[in-house]
């Protein structure tokens, strides 16, 4: 039985490795660290993620199906074009799902769930005061996870997750003003949930996501993602 569990866990781990690669490369692309038209070498990616070349290729193939990379015969994988509208569309889709989940949470949230959400937000504030970007990112995700759990809408949450993974989440904490705006939005959202104000919760959640789109586009412009267009 123990051997069987080990085998199954090993299989799960092998399935996770390509997704770890895909997550890493998505972040490189959507944060502007690699540019459209740039070839992706498997060796540096394998070394950065800590895997062999096989899961790197599998991860890149999954990104090909998502439109992030293209496969050039006999040359390898190249970063696919991404436009400003692509970025804004991703934020728009995330905002629609997030707004609906927040509205449902306002109807369904229990006192215990509200207490957990408030506790996470307090920890987020402490991390912001300390300038701990890793904790800021982790607690920001946890805040929204608790909110989505309160909405009790599993399928909608899965759809949201499929959009969120396309966005450059890890560098949000480094965007000037983002953390301050997040603190204000989270506090306002908690207040709306406490009062069961469905429409207000929806509006705050949608605005919170959409406000990030222009900031991310601006950062990507500064990083030269669309420099060739200017030329």
UniProtKB/TrEMBL annotation:
Sorted UniProt keywords: DNA-binding, Transcription, Transcription regulation
SUPFAM superfamilies assigned to the protein according to its UniProt record, in alphabetical order: GntR ligand-binding domain-like, Winged helix' DNA-binding domain
CDD domains: WHTH_GntR
GO molecular function: DNA binding; DNA-binding transcription factor activity
SMART domains documented for this protein: FCD (SM00895), HTH_GNTR (SM00345)
Residues of the HTH gntR-type domain: 15-82
UniProt cross-references to Pfam families, sorted A to Z: FCD, GntR
Protein name: GntR family transcriptional regulator
Native source organism of the sequence: Amycolatopsis echigonensis
